Amino acid sequence: MVSITAPTPPAPPPRAKSGVVRWAKILGRELTTVAITIFGLLLVTFLIARVMPIDPVLAVVGDRAPADVYDKARLALGLDKPYWQQFAVYIGKVFTGDLGTSVLTAQKVTDDIKTVFPATLELATLGTLIGVALGVPLGILAAVNQGRWIDQVARVIGLIGYSIPVFWLGLMGLLLFYAKLGWVAGPGRLSIAYQDFVTPMTGIVMLDAAMQGEWEAFVDAFWHLILPASVLGLLSVAYISRMTRSFMITELQQQYVVAARVKGLSEWRVVCGHALGNALVPLVTVIALSYMHLLEGSVLTETIFAWPGLGRYLTNALLNADMNAVLGGTLVVGAVFIAVNLFSDILGRLADPRAR
């Protein structure tokens, strides 16, 4: 009697296994880096709160509070415990979304940040889009036409963007385009006539106005946004165009570019299809860095244009010794830095087959 055995299923290809293991190692390494960075961010903000010459108890009870009230508030805040216990409590509160209460607004810092952060996000996003739309083509043209007039123009724009103080540029923009020419709207996010037209949903006025069909308010919000975003966009153009030019010059000197030209490929395909493709990986990192810089470096722009964003909120909190608001805003900015940096790393790996 002949026994028939069922065929054993084929084993998965070793290449697929190695790919899964490799990506698992990459993911584990990235998550470990993020966890260490977040822990360091929490530790730094905690130490800043303890080193600053500002008494958090006095910020709550006032300078003229009796001694017994001061002692009770100090116990309620947990400042009588050792530093390691205070740090543990601080970490627990942060991970539960409790960033404390703002002395200036008498509201939870989390609620305040939810209100002001979309304004900064809207401003920095448009500024970065302007920087990418103008800076990348300008950098490519400057690299292809190295030493010619377009290259000189790119250098001058970069010099202006790096040299002119942003507060002076904002003031001159308001004076020329708003006060003299009347091409744009003034400070703020929305004119008084349209304040009640848009119900806050996402916190981004233009998006909320479009979702609700309030197109007049949408146009008004755009004319308020375009000037401060252009001021930030000039800084982004200067940085992105300079780095794009540098990356493209390096790639255009490589042997594969010479080989592509010898094969008879058009200059357009050589520059945009080959050189730009290889320069894309570091360029993604540059754009991410520019975006993060605009998110945290728009304090002066928001102050000049009366833009109710995170930078202005942190400035007012710092001037009024509102440490809960300052530290909460710092944590949010740091978390955004980490998230954008991680996202740019992932995009870099997807864009570069060698990284994959």
Automatic annotation (TrEMBL):
Entry-linked InterPro entries: BPD_transp_1_N, MetI-like, MetI-like_sf
GO terms for MF: dipeptide transmembrane transporter activity
SUPFAM superfamilies: MetI-like
UniProt keyword annotation of Plastid present: no
The keyword Membrane belongs to this UniProt entry's keyword annotation: yes
Recorded superkingdom: Bacteria
Gene3D superfamilies per the UniProt record, alphabetical: MetI-like
Location in or out of the cell: Cell membrane
Entry's transmembrane regions: 31-52, 123-144, 156-179, 221-240, 271-292, 325-347
GO cellular component, one term: plasma membrane
Membrane topology recorded in Swiss-Prot or TrEMBL: Multi-pass membrane protein
PANTHER family, per the entry: D,D-DIPEPTIDE TRANSPORT SYSTEM PERMEASE PROTEIN DDPB-RELATED, DIPEPTIDE TRANSPORT SYSTEM PERMEASE PROTEIN DPPB-RELATED
UniProt record similarity statement: Belongs to the binding-protein-dependent transport system permease family.
This protein's name: Peptide/nickel transport system permease protein
Organism: Bosea lupini
